[in-house]
Design goal:
single chain, 312 residues, alpha+beta, Jelly Rolls, Arc Repressor Mutant, subunit A, 2 domains, five-stranded antiparallel sheet, five-stranded mixed sheet, 10 strands
């Protein structure tokens, strides 16, 4: 039996969907300021490093106030605006980012002209949204981590402090460090969201469930095709029927389907990133012959494994 004690299904999935992230800027805005962010295919986040401001979701009736330390994220790239007051004029967010990266902050006044200000840290999250995985489908539209309501999240505050400091300087390696810290920020935001998920269904909630989360960790821990529905149900102390029903309800597909899908995704990654012999890739995915594996792989990805390897 595989040793799964240290496996983290969330980390494994994030690696599979090719999570990448970067911070656009950490800078000061002098009032009045505002940004209108359009709907996007990539996630967006804002951290209020200093001061207070307002944010409104595109489909919300009323704006919400954000205070120092608050973090908001739109993992699916939802439209919204953010500004110092609800009535402040707002510039297109893409224009603001472009100007700041070019050294021309549109909301920064001369020192003698400046009055109330905010410090904002903004950036984006990207992942392969075309991947057919329930994690991508069940990403929340909006996450709000309130500093006043989450005093226990000291690790998140420390991460933001380091990220803000690194974003403001151009030391050797800062760009790489900022990108990696931003990826960690996304993971920590997802962990915080999982703990406070408003419902008990969906893949995000499944990760936190004692039985289904354990089963997902076991599936993601195998390097060869070891687990079956029977073995998984025994491992989490449920009957096969009860396990299949609960897994299907939370994850959105039967455990056998999830197993097959995940093994295919892992096989594709092995073909793209290693020189592992085809027969070994096939056996790791649960097939005893290259022919059977090739047929199933082509049916799943609409291209043969050899072509995937050549393209990579």
């Amino acid at each position: 039996m595989e040793n799964s004690a240290n496996m983290d299904a969330l980390a494994d999935v994030l690696k599979a969907v090719r999570l990448s992230a970067n911070t656009y800027f950490c800078t000061d805005f002098n009032a009045p300021w505002g940004m209108e962010i359009e709907e996007s295919k990539q996630g967006v986040f804002h951290v209020v490093v200093e001061g207070a401001c307002w944010l409104k979701l595109a489909k919300a009736d009323e704006p919400i106030q954000l205070d120092t330390g608050d973090i908001v994220a739109f993992p699916t790239g939802g439209a919204h605006w953010i500004s110092d007051t609800p009535n402040s004029p707002k510039l297109p967010g893409s224009n603001v980012v472009e100007n700041i990266l070019n050294g021309n902050n549109p909301f920064q006044l001369k020192e003698e002209e400046a009055h109330s200000s905010n410090t904002l840290l903004c950036g984006s999250f990207r992942y392969d949204s075309s991947m057919d995985h329930p994690f991508v489908k069940d990403l929340p539209c909006f996450i709000h981590i309130s500093a006043s309501e989450s005093p226990e999240n000291n690790w998140l505050k420390s991460l933001v402090t380091v990220l803000a400091a690194e974003s403001r300087q151009s030391s050797p390696g800062s760009t790489v460090m900022v990108d990696r810290l931003t990826e960690v920020l996304f993971i920590q935001l997802m962990r915080a969201y999982i703990k406070s998920a408003p419902n008990n269904m969906g893949y995000i909630a499944a990760l936190a469930d004692h039985q289904i989360g354990s089963a997902l960790n076991l599936i993601h821990s195998e390097s060869k095709a070891y687990w079956s529905v029977e073995r998984l149900s025994e491992a989490v102390a449920l009957s096969r029927t009860a396990f299949t029903l609960k897994f299907s309800k939370m994850v959105g597909m039967p455990p056998k389907t999830y197993l097959i899908n995940w093994r295919m995704q892992r096989a594709k990654a092995q073909l793209e990133t290693s020189n592992m012999p085809m027969i070994n890739v096939a056996e790791n995915a649960g097939y005893s012959s290259e022919a059977a594996f090739s047929k199933a792989f082509k049916l799943f990805f609409e291209q043969p494994p050899g072509q995937v390897r050549r393209n990579a």
